[in-house]
Write a structure and sequence with these properties.
Length: 252
Amino acid sequence: MFAFLVTRCFRTTSKVQKLTAQFPNELRNIRIYHLLTPCTQRRIVIHQNIKYLQRSSAFWVQMSCFHVSSQASKIKKVEEPEKRELDLIRYDLKELKNTPKPALYLGYGGLIPFVSAPLVMAVTETYFPELAFAQMAYGATILSFLGGTRWGFSIPESSPAKPDWLNLGNSVVPSLLAWIALLFHDNFTEAAIMIIMGLGIALHYDLALLPGYPSWFRALRTVLTVVSTFCLVATLVIKNTYPEKKLVSDRK
């Protein structure tokens, strides 16, 4: 009777026999497990669950550390941008194409008085003091305008440049240099040198000491200052090269 019950309880089909032939180790573990007492079986299950939880918890801790470290690296990259000081060729001059059309056209149009004076004298191969003085006076006007631009930029409450002594005080310097240049109206060389110095100082203030302008304006300021300075230097060269002739002769 016992033999009959064993054969009935543990009788397997052909499919089960094939599976047991492929996985003999697993079948042995299953048979051993079933031969144990229910209390021992519960202990084995609890022990296996504890091991699984330990492995899973360690895995999630590692994954969370990796996730946090990756996010921290991203935040670090955002909070620590590349240092930028005075790199016009790499940054600001690329933004010249984004200049608003009115500012671009008016800025380039403002170069006409600077360019026309040395161009006319170079074509005629004659130095005209009246044209040179007109160019110098226009340069003094532009120099005063640049100082007023910084003053107006510092006044609004939302402006990044605060109305402190640094911003407002330095915005007055170009106007003073323009006034001194006009006092040397009888000596074009000294007046032109004063205007050139004022343009250089104003550009240095806007690019290095008093930041806050948008990149396109900084690029436009650089181009306009370089061209106007070159035109004043050209007039100085013409003055020392070609003969002088007045446009209107003095009649008694």
